[in-house]
Amino acid sequence: MSQSYSPSLLTTPTYINVTNPEDDSVVSNDVTTTLGALILGLVFLLGVPGNLFIVWSILARTRQRSVTTLLILNLACADGILMALTIFFIVYLAKQSWVFGDAMCKGVFYLCNSNMYASIFLITLMSVHRMVAVVFPRKAKSLVTKQIVRRAIIGTWVLVMLISIPSLVFRDLRVDLDEKRMKRLVCAPNHTEARHVRFQYTLETVAGFILPYSVIITCYVLILRRLRQTKFQRKVRSENLILAIVVTFGLFWLPYHIINMLQVAAEWCKNGSKAKENLDEISKNSRAVTSCLAFISSCANPVLYTFAGKSYIKQSGFAFMARLFEGTSLDQTGTKKIRGQSKDLAESSSTGTPPLRNGK
Questions:
Q1: Burial of 106 from C-beta contacts in 10 A (0-12 / 13-18 / 19+)
Q2: Taking the mean position of all CA atoms in its chain, how far away is CA 104?
Q3: Mean of the pLDDT values across residues 287-314?
Q4: What are the φ and ψ backbone dihedral angles of 187, each rounded to 5 degrees?
Q5: pLDDT tens-digit profile of 120-171?
Q6: What mean pLDDT, rounded, does the chain reach?
Q7: Integer angstrom CA distances of residue 185 from 6, 71, 99, 156, 178
Q8: What's the average model confidence in pLDDT over 32-48?
């Protein structure tokens, strides 16, 4: 839940008015703030314990940690941090005033932005890993070692901390005058130029959604092509699980990025034009709700894992999640089967004879 903001070198909050849509507080609409607070409250109750349970299951109960498990661990950490931050926004929406000071105003939104990038980048790494394991099964062990994956994960966290700096810089604590001319502190965007709006929101959507999803879609197209070539029909557990994570993330974040692009489009419109007024109005009224919906994706993953591992619940109790994650290491079984079928396919191509099936 991140927006674009400008730095403040002032020791006290500045005054703003409500005539410019960019200055409108995200807590200025009673209906959207109430709905947003309810959504975030539910997200907090589900997301924090859910992601903590995932982290505990992997660190304390999972004996065999596959590459997928390492990526899920980092994703749960990113989601857990994001869920823990929702308490600040619940208070913000409830009080309709930011009571945590300027440093927390910048820091909380910076962490939110960082974890947004971390989530999608880690999901992208999962997709790339599955693509390598299925499309290049013979090279998978040399291309995707745990050491390489750990370096990739560290590099990902460094990248997200750097790419999120604009959300730290373009953020300010100010005094807002509402419709009744009452004063309240808001942690909101304060762009001084239209190009700042275009830069921040375009960066978020391109780097945090369009480019990663292009890579993800490409990976799954290659996976499906490979599976059809080898006629490999067995469902791999982590394949379906990762695909569910990808789809869920996209569904909940898409409205947020659509609003981003509408706000960017508004900045290209002529000042005072009807088109600009309409786009600004849509962005202003939808920003809080779409941001809250984006938070849901981080509490949805524990629910997905629970459904994926429900067959282990009766047998393993609270250890069912660990059994699920240990099962991701069995993906190599599917990889070996693909490797064997790939070999049969290659032999049949060179000899002109159909591949053997079940020894026949």
A1: buried
A2: 22
A3: 80
A4: -105, 95
A5: 999 999 889 888 888 888 887 777 888 888 999 999 999 999 999 998 888 8
A6: 78
A7: 16, 39, 7, 34, 11
A8: 84
Angle between helices 274-308 and 67-95 (to 10 degrees): 130
Residue 21 is predicted with a pLDDT of 41
Reported as half-sphere exposure (CB side, CA atoms, 13 A), residue 32 has a value of 17
Tell me the C-alpha distance between 89 and 190, whole Å: 19
Q: Give the whole-angstrom CA distance, residue 50 versus residue 306.
A: 10
| Residue 29 pLDDT | 58
| Dihedral sign from CA coordinates of 94, 98, 99, 105 | positive
Residue 44 near residue 301 (C-beta atoms within 8 A): no
Q: Which domains are delineated in the chain?
A: 14-338 (1.20.1070.10)
Tokens of 193: 């130029």
Residue 137's H or E segment, with its range, is none
**Structural element, H or E, at residue 263:** helix 237-268
Confirm if 244 and 304 have CB atoms less than 8 A apart: yes
* Contact (CB, 8 A) for 160 and 114: yes
Q: Where are the alpha helices (DSSP H) in 96-210?
A: 101-135, 140-143, 146-163, 165-169, 194-205
| pLDDT (tens digit per residue) in 166-209 | 988 888 888 877 666 677 888 888 777 888 889 999 999 999 99
Q: How far apart are CA 281 and CA 107, in angstroms?
A: 28
Which residues are 176's β-sheet partners? Answer: 16, 184
DSSP label of 175: E
Tokens describing residue 211: 């480019």
Q: Which residue has the tokens 């989530």?
A: 119
pLDDT band at 313 (very low <50, low <70, confident <90, very high): low
Task: Give the DSSP letter string of 8-48.
Answer: ---SSPEEE-SSSGGGS-TT--HHHHHHHHHHHHHHHHHHH
Distance CA 164, CA 166 (A): 6
Q: Are 237 and 327 in contact (CB under 8 A)?
A: yes
